[in-house]
Design goal:
The complex is a heterotrimer. Chain B is mainly alpha-helical. Chain B has eleven helices and four strands, in the order E-E-H-H-H-H-E-E-H-H-H-H-H-H-H. In chain C, strands 1-2 form a two-stranded antiparallel ribbon. The chains are: A alpha/beta, B mainly alpha, C mainly alpha.
C-alpha cells in the first residue's frame, strides 16, 4: 500500500480569487486515514482513498470552483496511538484540514479529540461507536454511514417484526460487543421479543463450536452475533458446519459488510440478515457509481458502505467549504450541518447538531447461491428503514452540543 | 434431564467432545514444537506461521491447481516441511553454537516476515475453503450434533500423534535421534549423519504444523493471522507438558483442550486465560512441567 | 565514566536538547519514552542475561495506571507517573517470583505467557476501556505550576525523566550489584558457588527493569494522553527486543539508538502498512545472523572502546 500524495489540480482560473482568500495556504488538504493492511483493509482501506479521490474529481468537474484539493493517506493499523500521532503530525506539520474514514472506534475517538483540540474537521465513515455522536460528540466531527445504535435498531426491530421473537446472543467479550448486545437486546425487548440466553466469547476466538452448541440447545429462533470481523466470519462458517440454519434457526449479524460475505461465500452465508446503508445494486445511480469505482480502483472488489460513506462525506465537505468560503474546521462542520445532504449513493439526507448524518438504512438478507446471478450479487433488500427512524433520537444520545 | 452445576449433562458431554476436538489441534501443534525443541533445543517461533502456511497451501492448491482436500493433506505438509529444511540449512544451523535465545529471535523474525508478506498479499479478511464432500454433514449423537469433519479431526490427530510418539520412542530411527541430542559427537563418530538427521527432524516438526494447518482450513478462517495468537497458547501447553516430552505434549494438548472446553461452558470469559493460569500454577509447583525431566 | 561514554552521553543529551528545534517534538518525545523502555529491557537481557518476552506488560500496566489516575482520579501528572511506576514495580515482583524459577528459554516463554494473561485481563476489564483504551487523558499541571499542555513544558519534563532513568541504569550497571549481575550472566554456577544468592540478584534486576519500563509507559501515556491495548500486546514485547538487539545488547547506548531507528522507521513506513512487520522481521533475521553486536556494539568494537 503506497503512500499516495495525489495532487488534484483544480484551478480553472489562476486568479487567487476571493473564494480562495480564506482557504488556508490556498489548498484544501484531506487526509484519508484507514486500516490499510489488516482487519478492516477490505472494508475501508485503499478503497476509501479511491472513493475520496472520486469525490474530489466529481465535485470539481460538476461545480465551477477555484478550490485546490490535495489528498494524502495513511495506515493507522487499528492502533489509537498510531492514529492519534499521525493526526497530530498531519494537523501540526503537514497542514491537513480534514481527516476522513477511520474505521475502528478506539482510533476514531482519539482522533475526534485531537481534531477538536486543533479546530479541524473529522469526517467519520468507518467507525461504529454511537458515542461519537453521543458522549464524545464534538463540533468538529460528522459521523456518516452507520453506528452501533442504528445496526442494533435496524436489524433487531426489523427481525422481531418479521417473527423472529426469541433470541440467543453470541457476544464478543469486549466493549464493542457488549454495546451491540445491549442495544440489540433493548430493541428486541421493546418489540415484544424474548432473549433466551447469551454467551460471551473471547475476542478473536478461533473456535465457536462450544458457543454455537449452546445457541442450538436454547432453540431460539434467532442467533444474534454481537461481534465483528473475523469473529463474525468464523461464527457463520462454523454455524453452517453444525447445520444451524438447516435446523431452522436464523443467524443475525450485527456488523457485517459485503466484503465479509465475499470472504465467507454464499454457500455458508445464505440466509444471514443484517443492516447496511449502501448496496451497489440498489438503483441505477449506485450501479453507475460502482462501475466507476471499480474502474478507478483497478480492482474487482465492489465498494462497501464505508467507502461509499467516504464519497458522500467528502462531497458534502467540499460543498460546505465553497458555501462557507473557508476551510476552518469548526466553521465548515457547522456549515455542513446547516446544509441538507444529497449525493447519488445515499440520496437526500441531513446532518443533525450532534454530528449524526441521517440517511435511509436497508435490511438485507444474503441470497442463496442459486439466486445469485453475477459477481457480488449477494443481497435481497428485505426492508427500507427511513432516515428519521434509522438512527438514535438526538435527545437520547447524551451529547451536549 | 440431569444437571451438573446448572448445565444439563447432555450439553456437558457435547462440550467435552468439542474440547477434545480443540485439544487435537493443541496436541498436533505442541507435538511439532516438542519434537523440534526436545530433539534440537530450538524454540520454533515460526511454528504458527508454518501452521498458517499449511492452511494457505491447501487454499492455493485448490484455487490455483484445483486439487482437493485429500491432495492437500498429502502434498502440503511435505512442501512446507521442505521450506523448513531450507530455513534450517541456511539459517538455524549457524546458531547452534550460540545461546539458544538467538534461535528464538531468528524464528520470531521469520514469523514476522512470513505473516507480514501474506498479510500484504491477502489482506486479513480471510479466505474461503470448503469442506471436503466426503466429510460434510454430520450425525446426531443424541446429546449433540457432531459434524463428521470434527470427528475426523480427532481420529486423524490421534493417529498422527501416536504414530510420531511411537516412531520417536520405539523405533531405531527414533533412538538415533534421541542419542544424537544427548551426544552428537559420539553418535557422529558411529557413522550416523547427525546434521542431516537434525535437518530432517526440523522439517518433520514443520510438516506437523502444516498438517494441522490443512486440517484447520475447512473449519477456521484461512487468514495470515491464524497462527499468531494460537502459537502463544501452544507455547503455554508445551511449557505445562514439559518442554522435551513428546508424550507430555500430546496428553497435555488434549487435556487442556478439554479443560478449555469446560471453561467455555461454566465461565466463558476466562476461556482465553485459563491455560495461562494453569501454566503459572504448574510453574510454581513443578517447574519442569508435568511430564518433563529437570534438565 | 570512561571518556568514550562521557562523549556519547554529551552527544545524546545535546541531540535531544537541540533536535526539537528542527524535528517534530512529539516524535522525539515518543523516541525518548521508547529509548527508556529499551534501556530498561537491556538491563535485564544485556547485563542480566535474562530474555523477557513479556516486557510490554510493564509498559502497558503503567500506561493504564497513569491514564486512569490522571483522568478518573484527577491525579496531577507527577503523582500519576509515580503511582503508575509503583504499579509496574508490583507487577514486576509478582511475575518475577513466578518466572525466575526457570532459566533461559523457559524464562522467556513464561514471561510471554504471563504477559498474554495480563493482556487478556486488560482486554476485558471495564476500567481500561477495552479496545477503546483510556482516551483524552489530561496532561495536567506539573508540580502545581508547569502547564504540560504546552509542548515545550512537556518536552522538558520528558527529557528530564529520560535522562534520570538513563543515568540510574548507568549507575546500576557500573555498581557492585551490576558486576555481580554480569558474573551471573557469564557463569551462573560459578557465581552460585562463590556464595551469591543468584535468584535474589536476578529478581532484583527483573524488578528494576520492570519499574523503569513502567516509568517509560507512564510518561508515554501522559504525553499522548492515551493508554491502549497496543502497549500490552505481545508484538510490543517483540518490538523492544528488536530495538535492543538492533542497537546492541549489553551496550549502554545501544538501546537508545535502536529505539530511535525503529521509531523512525515505523514513522516513515507507516504508510506502507504490513511492510512494517516484514521489515522488522528482516532486521531481526539480519541482526541475529550477521549483526549480533548491533549498531553501537559494532561501533564500539571498531573503536575498541566501551559504549
Amino acid at each position: 500500500m503506497k503512500f499516495k500524495q495525489t495532487i488534484i489540480a483544480a484551478a480553472i482560473a489562476a486568479l487567487a480569487g476571493t473564494a480562495n482568500a480564506q482557504v488556508s495556504d490556498g489548498i484544501v488538504k484531506i487526509g484519508v486515514m484507514s486500516d490499510m493492511s489488516s482487519l478492516y483493509a477490505d472494508i475501508g482501506g485503499p478503497g476509501s482513498v479511491v472513493a475520496a479521490r472520486m469525490a474530489v474529481d466529481d465535485y470539481l468537474k460538476a461545480h465551477k470552483t477555484n478550490l485546490k484539493v490535495e489528498i494524502v493517506s495513511a495506515d493507522h493499523q487499528n492502533k489509537p496511538d498510531v492514529g492519534s500521532q499521525i493526526a497530530r503530525q498531519w494537523y501540526d506539520v503537514d497542514k491537513v484540514d480534514a481527516i476522513v474514514d477511520v474505521p475502528t472506534s478506539s482510533v476514531a475517538l482519539a482522533i475526534a479529540d485531537v481534531t477538536k483540540q486543533k479546530g479541524k474537521a473529522f469526517l467519520i465513515s468507518g467507525a461504529a461507536s454511537s458515542d461519537l455522536t453521543g458522549k464524545a460528540c464534538s463540533p468538529n466531527s460528522v459521523h456518516w454511514t452507520y453506528d452501533t445504535w442504528m445496526l442494533a435498531n435496524g436489524t433487531g426491530s426489523a427481525i422481531v417484526k418479521t417473527g423472529g421473537d426469541t433470541w440467543f446472543f453470541i457476544t464478543a467479550d469486549y466493549a464493542f460487543g457488549h454495546a451491540l448486545e445491549r442495544d440489540t437486546e433493548a430493541v428486541v425487548l421493546k418489540g415484544g421479543g424474548k432473549v433466551l440466553g447469551k454467551v460471551r466469547h473471547p475476542l478473536n476466538a478461533q473456535d465457536f463450536s462450544s458457543f454455537l452448541l449452546q445457541a442450538q440447545a436454547s432453540k431460539a429462533k434467532i442467533i444474534g452475533l454481537a461481534n465483528a470481523g473475523g469473529d463474525t466470519i468464523n461464527s457463520i462458517k462454523q454455524a453452517s458446519e453444525f447445520g444451524i440454519v438447516k435446523g431452522g434457526q436464523s443467524l443475525a449479524g450485527m456488523l457485517v459488510f459485503i466484503s465479509d460475505i465475499h470472504g465467507i461465500g454464499l454457500e455458508k452465508a445464505q440466509g444471514l440478515i443484517f443492516t447496511e446503508t449502501f448496496y451497489w445494486d440498489l438503483n441505477p445511480q449506485t450501479r453507475d457509481w460502482t462501475k466507476r469505482f471499480l474502474a478507478a480502483s483497478k480492482g474487482t472488489k465492489y465498494p462497501t458502505m464505508v467507502q461509499a460513506g467516504v464519497y458522500g462525506a467528502v462531497t458534502h465537505y467540499l460543498k460546505a467549504i465553497d458555501a462557507a468560503k473557508t476551510d476552518d474546521g469548526t466553521k465548515v462542520v457547522a456549515q455542513m450541518k446547516a446544509m441538507p445532504t444529497d449525493d447519488p449513493l445515499f440520496g437526500k439526507g441531513s446532518i443533525r447538531k450532534d454530528g449524526r448524518t441521517l440517511h435511509p438504512a436497508y435490511l438485507v438478507e444474503v441470497k442463496k447461491p442459486s439466486e445469485s446471478k453475477g459477481p457480488y450479487d449477494y443481497y435481497k433488500v428485505r426492508a427500507t428503514i427511513p432516515a428519521d427512524q434509522a438512527f438514535r433520537p438526538e435527545k437520547d444520545g447524551g451529547c451536549n452540543l | 434431564m440431569t444437571e451438573i452445576f446448572g448445565v444439563p449433562t447432555q450439553a456437558l458431554f457435547g462440550q467435552l467432545l468439542i474440547g477434545l476436538i480443540n485439544g487435537s489441534f493443541y496436541a498436533l501443534l505442541s507435538l511439532g514444537l516438542a519434537v523440534i525443541f526436545g530433539l534440537l533445543n530450538i524454540i520454533n517461533f515460526t511454528h504458527g506461521a508454518q501452521y498458517m502456511l499449511g492452511a494457505f497451501g491447501a487454499y492455493l492448491l485448490t484455487s490455483k491447481l484445483g486439487l482437493g482436500y485429500w491432495w492437500s493433506l498429502l502434498l502440503v505438509p511435505p512442501i512446507v516441511g521442505a521450506t523448513g529444511i531450507v530455513i534450517e540449512r541456511l539459517m538455524l544451523r549457524q546458531l547452534y553454537k550460540l545461546d539458544h535465545l538467538y534461535g528464538l529471535l531468528l524464528t520470531f523474525g521469520l514469523a514476522l516476515i512470513i505473516q507480514g508478506v501474506f498479510r500484504n498479499e491477502y489482506g486479513t479478511s480471510g479466505l474461503p475453503y470448503s469442506m471436503p464432500e466426503q466429510l460434510a454433514g454430520g450425525r446426531n449423537l443424541g446429546f449433540m450434533f457432531l459434524p463428521n469433519y470434527r470427528a475426523w479431526v480427532i481420529v486423524a490427530s490421534l493417529v498422527v500423534c501416536l504414530g510420531t510418539w511411537f516412531m520417536i520412542e520405539k523405533t531405531k530411527l527414533g533412538s538415533y535421534l534421541r542419542a544424537a541430542t544427548e551426544n552428537p559427537a559420539l553418535v557422529q563418530a558411529f557413522g550416523i549423519n547427525v546434521p542431516r538427521m537434525i535437518t530432517l527432524t526440523y522439517g518433520f516438526g514443520v510438516a506437523l504444523a502444516a498438517f494441522a494447518g490443512v486440517m484447520a482450513a475447512p473449519i477456521y478462517q484461512v487468514s495470515p493471522q491464524m497462527g499468531a495468537d494460537l502459537i502463544i497458547v501452544v507455547f503455554a501447553v508445551v511449557v505445562i507438558g514439559g518442554m522435551g516430552s513428546i508424550l507430555g505434549s500430546i496428553l497435555t494438548g488434549f487435556g487442556l483442550g478439554v479443560i478449555e472446553g469446560l471453561t467455555k461452558v461454566f465461565y466463558p470469559e476466562a476461556s482465553n486465560t485459563v491455560i495461562f493460569v494453569i501454566m503459572a500454577i504448574v510453574l510454581m509447583i513443578k517447574p519442569a512441567g508435568l511430564f518433563g525431566a529437570q534438565k | 565514566m570512561p571518556r568514550s561514554q562521557k562523549i556519547a552521553l554529551g552527544v545524546m543529551a545535546a541531540f535531544f536538547l537541540l533536535a526539537p528545534l528542527v524535528v517534530y517534538p512529539v516524535f522525539l518525545m515518543k523516541a525518548m519514552c521508547f529509548a527508556l523502555f529499551a534501556c530498561a529491557f537491556n538491563l535485564l537481557i544485556g547485563f542480566g542475561g535474562l530474555l523477557s518476552f513479556g516486557h510490554a506488560m510493564f509498559l502497558g500496566t503503567a500506561g493504564y495506571a497513569a491514564a486512569y489516575a490522571a483522568k478518573a482520579w484527577g491525579f496531577p501528572p507527577e503523582f500519576a507517573i509515580l503511582f503508575a511506576t509503583a504499579c509496574a514495580a508490583l507487577l514486576g515482583l509478582a511475575t518475577g517470583l513466578i518466572a525466575i524459577r526457570r532459566q533461559g528459554i523457559y524464562f522467556a516463554m513464561t514471561t510471554l505467557a504471563l504477559a498474554q494473561m495480563i493482556y487478556f485481563y486488560y482486554l476485558q476489564a471495564h476500567w481500561t476501556g477495552g479496545e477503546d483504551g483510556i482516551q483524552a487523558v489530561p496532561r495536567g499541571t506539573l508540580l502545581g505550576f508547569l502547564d504540560l499542555s504546552n509542548v515545550w513544558a512537556m518536552y522538558g519534563t520528558v527529557f528530564v525523566i529520560f535522562m534520570a532513568g538513563f543515568l540510574l541504569i548507568y549507575r546500576v550497571i557500573y555498581s557492585p550489584f551490576g558486576q555481580v549481575l554480569k558474573a551471573i550472566r557469564e557463569n551462573e554456577p560459578r557465581a552460585l558457588s562463590l556464595g551469591y544468592d543468584v535468584n535474589r540478584y536476578k529478581l532484583l534486576a527483573y524488578l528494576l527493569s520492570a519499574t523503569l519500563a513502567g516509568l517509560a509507559g507512564a510518561t508515554k501515556a501522559i504525553v499522548f494522553q492515551l493508554a491502549s491495548l497496543t502497549d500490552v500486546h505481545w508484538s510490543m514485547s517483540g518490538e523492544v527486543v528488536l530495538m535492543t538487539l538492533l542497537g546492541g545488547l549489553g551496550t549502554v547506548f545501544g538501546p537508545v539508538v535502536g529505539a530511535f531507528i525503529i521509531i523512525t522507521m515505523e514513522n516513515y513506513l507507516a504508510q506502507l502498512g504490513a511492510w512494517v512487520t516484514v521489515t522488522q522481521g528482516i532486521i531481526f533475521v539480519i541482526c541475529v545472523l550477521t549483526f549480533r553486536r548491533g549498531v553501537i556494539g559494532e561501533i564500539g568494537n571498531y573503536l575498541k572502546k566501551p559504549l
